[in-house]
Amino acid sequence: MRRSLANLIMHSLQAGLVAPVFDWRSRRSQTGATMDCCFCRPSILRRLPAGLRAGAVTFCLALVANLVAGCAHAPVNAPLARSDPAAGYRFQTELGRPDRSGLMVALFFSGGGTRAAAFSYGVLRELAATRIAGDHRMLDDVTTINAVSGGSFTAAYYCLYGDRIFTDYEKLFLRRNIQGALLRGWLSPRNSFRLYSSYFGRSDLAAEYYDELLFHGATFGDLAKAGPTRPFLVINATNISTGTPVQFTQDQFDLIGSDLSRYPISRAVAASSAVPLAFSPIILKNYADRVPAADAFLLQSTGGSDVFASYRAALTETSRSYRDAAKQPYIHLMDGGLADNLSLRNLLDSVTLSGGWQAVIDRLRRGGITKLAIIVVNAAVESKQEWAQLDGTPGVRSVITALSNSSINRTTKETVTLVQDSLALWQTQRAAQRAAPDNQPKIYLIRVDFHSSQDPAERAFFDSVPTSLSLPAETAARLIQGGERLLRESPGYQSLLKDMAMEQSARKAKPAPTQSR
């Protein structure tokens, strides 16, 4: 038995099965730690008596496994050299994109695995197919995309590569068995030693795969270099210590004194889609004790009773918690849907930080914006808990799934209600005051979800699609087509198109100004 084991280990070493984690030729592991074991050198092994080779190789293999497991470490987010509110990947610095239609579109993509990725991709295709004037598309007026979990794949790919998404994304991602590829990677002998490390988990391995497949080393600094011609991307995760959302923006990273421009997009996507149990947390280091904390999220109470009062207080408390790096030296991130499956809290954050809806509207008006379209793409399904009809004890997986779904559905409903109520209150106050300018931008809240379908059979089909990272090609195609059609049929979207058409007609009918001699 011992001789057979020795032969197997020798064959593995010679075949290169452990070479990816330990290379005796370069004397350096991929983690950067120098390791050199003389017994693992083939020339030394041949000199040993046959009876000692098995023991030597077994000892060395165990030693290498422990060394690799101890040395394997996920990439660490970089600290800021200095805090500069005018630098970095921020919405304020990306807002100056050229505008030709007076329309600003903000997209919000929900989570839901490949189901959400395909559904949101269909919405992008419909926006690209909608012509406003000449070659100008509705998609060209998308200024920001906020995304969670499965929706973050589509959002990140489009913000990074633009229209290239319409040529290769379906084949590259939507029709690929991502889930199977991840599982094979986790079970691979090349990665098994790394996953033994306390500093490297399944989500770190997933991030490497996403980077190899989709993002090719791109960072948020690369997004910033693209300039205002691309939408501003906001990927969302959840701080599992506090249960609060974390946005991958420089404003958020200022709170922990970290440089977002050097952070890989693949790791942000991995954090946003890290479903509990299946994946491990993505970890950020808190450098707030090295760099003076930013005050962008620290709000003073106005003392009023506006609809944002409680939200403002919660946002301030959460932001201040990051200042104590000794108490919270690391932030553990998981699926963004745990805190906000629609990423709509980013909208509430923006409105709160700006001072309310009127302040936002005034800023848009000064920028020449006449219409703001908020398009919420929700790929959530209505899950049926069959065990709720039985008197038997449900399994652990069923209980965890039910708790996760109920939490997501509750927070989604609360967030949508808060957005709607805040908008309604602002419109009521505006009508009562009668002091606002007549040229105030008009706001369109457009919701695209499975339950807006008028076909019961189609709704049942959508609800049957599981939350996974692998779907049949036919299912992905139906989801893409559903995203296109449900946006096109949305009453809010039709109202927007009607107003845009009337505005275009009015411009054409308006006589050209005469030139004075």
Please describe the structure with a list of short key phrases separated by commas or semicolons.
single chain; 517 residues; alpha/beta; two-stranded antiparallel sheet; 11% strand; globular; disordered N terminus; 8-stranded mixed β-sheet
Task: Record the SSE blueprint.
Layout lengths: L1 H14 L26 H6 L2 H22 L19 H4 L8 E7 L3 H17 L1 E3 L2 E2 L4 E7 L1 H12 L3 H10 L3 H10 L1 H7 L6 H14 L4 H7 L5 E8 L4 E4 L2 H5 L10 H8 L9 E4 L23 H13 L8 E6 L9 H10 L2 H10 L4 E8 L17 H38 L8 E8 L6 H9 L8 H17 L1 H19 L8
Parallel strand pairs: 1-4, 1-9, 4-5, 9-10
Antiparallel strand pairs: 2-3, 5-6, 5-8, 7-8
Helix pairs in contact: 1-3, 5-6, 5-19, 8-10, 10-13
Structure commentary:
It contains 20 helices and ten strands. The protein is an alpha/beta fold and 517 residues long. Strands 1, 4, 5, 6, 7, 8, 9 and 10 form an eight-stranded mixed beta sheet that branches. Strands 2-3 form a two-stranded antiparallel sheet. Helix 1 (2-15) packs across helix 3 (50-71) and helix 8 packs across helix 10. The termini are far apart.
